[in-house]
Amino acid sequence: MMPLGTAEVAKIAHLARLAIREEEVPDYARNLSAILELVEQMNAVDTTGVTPMAHPLDMVQRLRADEISESNQREHFQAIAPRVDAGLYLVPKVIE
Amino acid sequence: MMEWETVIGLEIHAQLATQSKIFSGAATAYGAEPNTQACAIDLGMPGVLPVLNREVVRMATMLGLAIDAQIARRSVFARKNYFYPDLPKGYQISQYELPIVQKGQLTIDLEDGSSKVIGVTRAHLEEDAGKSLHEDFHGLSGIDLNRAGTPLLEIVSEPDLRSAKEAVAYMKKLHQLVVYLGICDGNMQEGSFRCDANVSVRRKGDPQFGTRAEIKNLNSFRFVERAIDFEIERQIELIESGGKVVQETRLYDPDQGETRSMRSKEEANDYRYFPDPDLLPLALDEAFIEAARVALPELPEVKKQRFMTQYELSGYDASVLTASRDLADYYEATVAALGGEPKLCANWVMGDFSAFLNKENRDLADSPVSAVRLAGLLRRIQDRTISGKIAKEVFEALWASEGDADAIIEKRGLRQITDTSAIEKVIDDVIAANPEQLAQYRAGKDKLFGFFVGQVMKLSKGKANPQQVNDLLMEKLQGRNDLLA
Amino acid sequence: MHEKTIAQLSASLATGEFSSEELTRALLERVERFNPSLNAFITVTAESALAQARAADERRRQGAAGLLTGIPIAHKDIFCTDGVRTSCGSRILDRFIAPYNATVVERLNAAGAVMLGKTNMDEFAMGSSNETSFYGPVRNPWDLDAVPGGSSGGSAAAVAARLTPGATGTDTGGSIRQPAALCGITGIKPTYGRVSRWGMIAYASSLDQGGPMARTAEDCALLLGAMAGFDLRDSTSVDRPAPDYAALLDQPLTGLKIGLPKEYFGEGLDSAVARVVEDAIAEYRKLGAETVEISLPNSHLAIPAYYVVAPAECSSNLARFDGVRYGHRCENPKDLLDLYTRSRGEGFGAEVQRRILVGTFALSAGYYDAYYLKAQQIRRLISDDFRQAFAQVDVIMGPTSPTVAFNLGEKVDDPITMYLSDIYTIAVNLAGLPGLSLPVGFVGQRPVGLQVIGDYFTEDRLLNVAHRYQQVTDWHQRAPTAFA
Question: Is the domain of B207 the same as that of B248?
Answer without folding.
Answer: yes
